[in-house]
Amino acid sequence: MAYRFQIQSPATETAIMGADFIGGMVFIQFFNGGGSPVTPTGRPVVERSEYATGNVWRTVEPFSAGEWRFNAYAQRVRVNMAGVSGYASYRAEVYRCNEPVTMVPDGAYTGMRANVVQYYDEINKKRGAQWEASRLITIADNLPASNAYSILRTGSKPVDLKARAFGYTGLGVIGRIYEGPTYSGGTADPWYNMNTQYIGQQPEAQLLTGFTLTALGTKCGADIIAIGPISNQSRGSVVHEYARNRILPKPNTAYLLEIASIDPASQQVSARVEMYEGGLDWPIPI
């Protein structure tokens, strides 16, 4: 037997549903000013809480268009319409039952619907959690004083430094990374989200240049040694990615990114970084 709990706008949360249910289904409908159904722009966020009070919530992933499902202990469900537009009112129907609900989409076993596999890279970009930055610099020679530096400073969330990429016009470069450098000042360079829906937004993590460096910090990664051909007819290299998926889990921590030239002559270097900012799902956080 199923029980129904309703959320009628402008309300956002169900009454306390009790602890006797396992399965849950949430359906949200939107209406215009005349009460006719409409399809909004954007997607709501549905969350559940195992507590009758307090502000501890877990996100419920969409099952299909306008429907969310879960099998879990939950005493409350709430909806968040931030970023959703094109409607005058909404109604959420929350159904709870004593048995688990199926989590397999209709048609998955009949050839009418595929089970799609996505890599983290694609999911991160779709969700607006992956960012990029790049710059073109000139390194005068292979002396330490000519090295180029930037600082990646994490915010409150973990960072997965997806890749560092280098291209160069001379003999090559060496990339290094250090944790906890000593520095002062600096200007934040802009990040660009890999999803154009988020143009102009910035992550918590900052990418700093123009600072005064007094200590490198503790080296926390192997050197990236990027070398190319040395003949007169062919020198340099197009951009290649190196050192993928370096996890930077510590909050509010600075990491120094160093680029050293191995060419005694001047060369131009193209440098690019790509990073994900957000929770890491292994181990699953409690």
Key phrases:
six-stranded antiparallel β-sheet, Jelly Rolls, 22 strands, 286 residues, mainly beta, 48% strand, 2 domains, 1 helix
Characterise the protein shown here.
By secondary structure, this protein is mainly beta. The chain has two domains: 2-97, Jelly Rolls (Sandwich); 130-277, Jelly Rolls (Sandwich), CATH 2.60.120. Helix content is 2%, strand content 48%. The protein has one helix and 22 strands. It has one helix spanning 120-126; strands spanning 2-8, 23-31, 37-38, 45-49, 58-60, 62-64, 67-71, 76-80, 89-97, 130-139, 148-153, 159-168, 172-179, 182-189, 192-193, 206-215, 218-219, 224-227, 237-242, 246-248, 254-261, 267-277. The strands form four sheets. Strands 11, 13, 14, 16, 17, 18 and 21 form a seven-stranded antiparallel β-sheet that branches. Strands 1, 2, 3, 6, 7 and 9 form a six-stranded antiparallel β-sheet that branches. A hairpin with a 2-residue loop joins strand 6 and strand 7. The longest helix is centred in the middle third of the chain and has 7 residues, at 120-126. The two termini are 31 Å apart. The model has no long low-confidence stretch (mean pLDDT 93).
